[in-house]
Every structure is written in structure tokens, then in C-alpha cells.
Specification:
15 helices; 5-stranded antiparallel beta sheet; 30% helix
């Protein structure tokens, strides 16, 4: 890895905006305040403010105004960076109400958290820089309770400020003044907010599987780990627009399927935020009889609910099997047998749903995910099992030929019920490909969702969000969670998108900059889904055949080429704002919105 630069202590007079006054005044407190985007993970021990370094040109001109752009019912984060030339003994932040011509967004719609930095000295991200990386986002009040609100001279400290709008937040522009308190001195921080006139859906329109290894939770939460804590982790993931891999163990069962279905209906089927959920059959418990028993009980329950008057409930739409993980060639026959058994059970049971066309389609479409790249040996027909849902790592889509291969699988007619394509990241790939590693460029986890929409990926999988152990030389052991970032061999942060709340007096997991970036990407996926709904509506009304992904290429090409992000955070912010405008225009006036999109 590259070595970090020596920090040069830089004194920059602070520009303080006085509420109600358009002028700026200088304050000689020896602190530089500047914004950073939510898509940046800027190292604490790095000099971004040396004007002699051309790489810093963007950073040195950034002011301390925090600018939020959002639609209704959306999260939007931004970072206030604090870089002092002397040791800071304490800091605090007072959130503002922001006021506009259409009303007020009160301070309770904002939250402020302090970035906790992890020292990454080396990792498998060979292009990364060693240094102190921001990761856990500790609520500021909890950070102060541990008396950690100090900043050493020359270090960068991030405050992550999030705005959560509601469905009825009035559209328009707002302003307010936050207060940063440094060693008792109050400093004005301008807030500028623009809310676009469109509503983010609560439902997620791309499937995901972010697994929670519930047996890892006690390693971080200690005596607080119990059924309620497991549920807290599940609900936390859902609140971040992630679909947990499966129900908490207390609500699931590999033997009592009736008990499982009852909880599955409440926690998954009836929660529009959950897009997908793994059925409780593992490699070890997979038999044709088990699959038949589970699916028959689901059919019986769904028909019962329909007959009782619930005309929309669908127990199959979100369900998938995931049993065979990264199979080696020696396991291919097992993979084929599992898939053949599931296929045969579908053929056997599906006729019971003939009177319910929507349920029939969902039932035969239940996915069986195998984390493997395409392999001819695993091609399936009606007579021979193989892979129904391919789930390779993202680098397999780098070339047009690779993407076309998986598009062909999605369009395959080799057997009934078709095939699907998901993708995943893990220890691999590393930069320049997208990943969720602690020391990878944060923007790649955000842009991954744009690629997902662009390339028509059906879903995405991540193996665990709370790996609190340390994997080394093939063996899992204890890890100092708050000081050792190498969770899996030499990989920083892999399998760990949250931290245990116990350390800071918080019940449940603590989010990370990476988790917030992933959530933001899922929200931006919804922009594209919303645009597509209106494009389809326009096509139906005007007998046109516009394809949304074609119309959006002018945005995608500004963010990445194939699977490689251009790492341009300014371009991402520009694209995001332009897409917000497109959504607002389309939902305000369809014809005018399409005219704007077609330019």
C-alpha cells in the first residue's frame, strides 16, 4: 500500500456565517471547516488542504456550508470536516430548524454522528492508502459520553449529518444555521436544503440478501445478546433498505414450517420494505420431501388467506432458496440434484395455484441462488438440474461479452421457469472494482446500484453484515472489533457493515459510513425505478418504445465505464441532482418531463 503523506499543520482562518446576515466574518480560532460528500471516506491523518498539491484543488476550495438535496421520504447525508491546527479538547453540534417559504423542517429530522476512525496499515486493497479510515458513525451524544470528543492538531474529523424527510415534507428550498461548539466557542454552520416534489417509495424494487450471522452478535453485544437483540439487528437492516438474509433464529425453524410461515408473513410478506427472504432449508436439510412440505404449506396458507378475502397477499414473491455457496467442481452433482428436486416440486405443486395467476407466476419464479460464475457444466434443462439463479462476483460483468452472457441466461428457454442473475462482492474483487471494504473508495459502493440497474441485475447478495470474528489462515477467532479492521484474512471490514452498540450504550447495531452509502445507493436505484414507471406510462399512452436504460446512459457514462467507477464524487452529486429533477418533472407533468428527459 502507499504510505500516507506527512501532515503539514495548516492554519486557515474560519469563515463564520452570522444568522440573518449575508456577510462572512473571520474567526481566529485556527480551525478549517469544510464539507465532504457522503460518498467520500476521507482519511483522518492525511493533508487534504495543502494548496501546493494539485490533487487537493477540490478540497481547498470547499466551504463549511452543508447542502442537502433530497426528495420526500428520503435520507440525505453530508459530512462536516473539522481540521484544527491545535489540539481540540471538546466539540459539540446543535442542529437547526431550517425554514423555507412553504414551512419548516424541524431539527428532529436531522441527526448528527461522529466518525470513528480505524487504523488500516495494510490490506488486500493494494491500491489503497494506509491510514485512519472513517467507519462507525457514533451518535454524537454517545461519543461525548465516552469523553472521546477530542481532535488532535492536523487531523481531520468528520461529523456525519443526515436529513430524513417524510412523505409530507413540503417541496422547496430551506435555510438554517447549525452551531458547532469547539472548546466552548460557538461557530455558525449554514444549512441549505432543497426538497424535490416527489416521494421516495417505501418498497424496494431490487432484491437483496444481506445476511445476518446471528451467532456472531454475542461476540459484540455480550450479555445483551438475546432474541430481542437479534430482532434489533433484523429491523436495523430493514431500516437501511437492506433485506436480511433470513428471519432471526427465534422466528424461524428448519422443522416446524407452520411456525416459520406465521412469522414470515408478519416480518417479510407484510413489510413492503423487505424485498426478498431466504427460505429455511440449508444444504444439510435439503431433501425433496422437505422442499415439498415447506412449499405445500405455503400454498395452503396463501390459498386460505385469499379465500378469507386478502386479495393481494403473496407468500412466494419474496422467497428464494440459497443452499449452495461457491461450489467446487466436486459439489456440482449436489448442486444439480438440489436444483432438480426444487424444479420437480414446482412442477408437481404449481397446478394448485391455477386459479391465482399472480401466485402461480410468483411460485414458479422462486429463485434458487448459487454463488458461482457461469459454467456450462451447470446449465440446466427440465430433465437435468443445474443453476436457476446465477450469482457471480461483480467483476464478471466487466466486458460487454460478459454482460451479454448473463443476459442470455436471463432470456434462456433451456427449461421452464427461466433463469435469473444476481451478483455479489466478498473478499474479492478489489479496486478498481466496486466493493464494501473499509479502505476501498466509498463511492464504488454507491455507484454499484447504478450499474445494477443499468445491467439488469435481478438481485445482490452480501455474505454477512456483522462478522465480529477474525478469520486468519482458515480459522475464525476473536478480534478486537474497535481496533482491528482486518476481519477476514487481510481484508479490512469485509463482512462487517455494523459495530456493536454495547460499547457506546446503544441497544442494537451502530451504522457505518459504508452502510449509509449502500442505503443511499438503494435509494438512488428507486430514482431509476420511478423514472421507468413514467417511461412505461408514456409508451402506453403514445405507442412509443423508449427504453429507460437507454435514456439514462447519458448519466451512467458520467459515473463509470463497464464495472470501473471514475471515482468522481462531484459527477455523482451532479447526476443525482439531475435525476431528482427528472423524477420531479415526470411526476409533475408526464409530457414535459419526457421532453426534458429526451433532450
Amino acid at each position: 500500500m502507499k504510505t500516507k503523506k506527512l501532515l503539514k499543520l495548516l492554519w486557515v482562518p474560519l469563515l463564520v456565517t452570522i444568522a440573518g446576515c449575508g456577510n462572512q466574518q473571520k474567526s481566529d480560532i485556527g480551525v478549517h471547516l469544510w464539507y465532504a460528500y457522503a460518498s467520500e471516506n476521507l482519511i483522518s491523518d492525511w493533508d487534504y488542504l495543502d494548496e501546493k498539491d494539485p490533487d487537493n484543488a477540490d478540497f481547498v476550495k470547499r466551504d463549511s456550508t452543508l447542502r442537502f438535496t433530497s426528495m420526500k421520504n428520503e435520507n440525505e447525508g453530508i459530512q462536516l470536516m473539522i481540521t484544527p491546527d491545535h489540539d481540540i479538547q471538546s466539540f459539540d453540534f446543535i442542529l437547526p430548524d431550517v425554514i423555507g417559504p412553504n414551512g419548516t423542517i424541524t431539527k428532529d429530522h436531522f441527526t448528527v454522528a461522529t466518525a470513528y476512525y480505524m487504523n488500516v496499515e495494510y490490506s488486500n486493497e493494494r491500491t489503497a492508502v494506509s491510514g485512519l479510515y472513517p467507519d462507525a458513525l457514533i451518535p454524537l451524544k454517545n461519543y461525548k459520553m465516552r469523553k472521546m470528543d477530542r481532535i488532535s492538531a492536523g487531523m481531520n474529523q468528520s461529523l456525519y449529518i443526515n436529513l430524513k424527510t417524510t412523505e409530507d415534507t413540503p417541496a422547496g428550498e430551506y435555510e438554517g444555521i447549525g452551531k458547532l461548539i469547539i472548546d466552548g466557542e460557538s461557530i455558525n454552520i449554514p444549512f441549505e436544503v432543497k426538497i424535490f416534489d416527489a416521494v421516495m417509495p417505501n418498497e424496494n424494487h431490487v432484491r437483496s440478501s444481506f445476511l445476518i450471522w446471528y451467532d456472531q452478535i454475542p461476540l459484540g453485544e455480550k450479555q445483551n445478546a438475546d432474541a430481542d437483540m437479534n430482532n434489533a439487528y433484523f429491523e436495523f437492516a430493514v431500516s437501511k433498505r437492506l433485506s436480511p438474509g433470513e428471519l432471526p433464529p427465534e422466528l424461524s425453524s428448519y422443522s416446524n414450517f407452520d411456525y416459520y410461515i406465521k412469522n414470515y408473513i408478519e416480518k417479510v410478506v407484510k413489510d413492503e420494505r423487505v424485498a426478498a427472504s431466504r427460505l429455511p432449508i440449508t444444504t444439510n436439510s435439503m431433501t425433496k420431501n422437505n422442499a415439498r412440505t415447506l412449499l405445500q404449506k405455503m400454498i395452503d396458507k396463501n390459498i386460505e388467506l385469499r379465500q378469507e378475502g386478502d386479495t393481494t397477499i403473496d407468500l412466494f414473491k419474496k422467497a428464494y432458496f440459497y443452499m449452495d455457496d461457491e461450489p467446487a467442481p466436486a459439489q456440482y452433482e449436489t448442486v444439480k440434484q438440489h436444483d432438480k428436486d426444487i424444479f420437480d416440486v414446482k412442477v408437481e405443486l404449481a397446478p394448485q395455484l391455477a386459479n391465482f395467476p399472480d401466485l402461480y407466476a410468483s411460485f414458479v419464479g422462486i429463485e434458487n441462488i448459487v454463488t458461482t460464475p457461469y459454467n456450462e457444466t451447470l446449465n440446466a434443462t427440465n430433465e437435468v438440474g443445474g443453476v436457476h439463479t446465477w450469482c457471480p462476483q461483480v467483476q464478471n460483468f466487466q466486458t460487454p461479452e460478459g454482460r451479454e452472457l448473463y443476459k442470455e441466461r436471463q432470456n434462456s428457454t433451456d427449461r421452464d421457469f427461466g433463469e435469473k442473475v444476481w451478483w455479489y462482492v466478498c473478499n474479492d474483487p478489489i479496486m478498481p472494482y466496486p466493493n464494501y471494504h473499509l479502505d476501498a473508495k466509498l463511492i464504488t459502493s454507491r455507484v454499484l446500484r447504478y450499474m445494477e440497474y443499468d445491467y439488469g441485475i435481478d438481485g445482490n447478495l452480501f455474505w454477512n453484515i456483522c462478522w465480529y470474528s477474525k478469520q486468519l489462515k482458515g480459522t475464525a477467532g476473536p478480534r478486537d472489533i474497535w481496533n482491528d479492521p482486518l476481519s477476514w484474512e487481510s481484508c479490512a471490514g469485509d463482512g462487517m457493515l455494523v459495530y456493536p452498540g454495547l460499547t457506546f450504550g446503544i441497544y442494537g447495531p451502530i451504522t457505518t459510513l459504508r452502510m449509509e452509502s449502500i442505503m443511499a445507493g438503494f435509494e438512488e436505484y428507486e430514482y431509476m425505478w420511478m423514472i421507468d414507471q413514467k417511461v412505461q406510462e408514456f409508451n402506453a399512452l403514445n405507442d412509443t418504445t423508449y427504453v429507460t436504460t437507454d435514456l439514462l446512459q447519458k448519466y451512467f457514462t458520467r459515473l463509470y465505464t463497464d464495472m470501473i467507477s471514475n471515482l468522481d464524487v462531484n459527477a455523482l452529486e451532479e447526476v443525482r441532482t439531475e435525476l431528482l429533477s427528472v423524477v420531479e418533472n415526470l411526476y409533475g407533468n408526464l409530457n414535459d418531463g419526457m421532453s426534458s428527459l429526451l433532450k
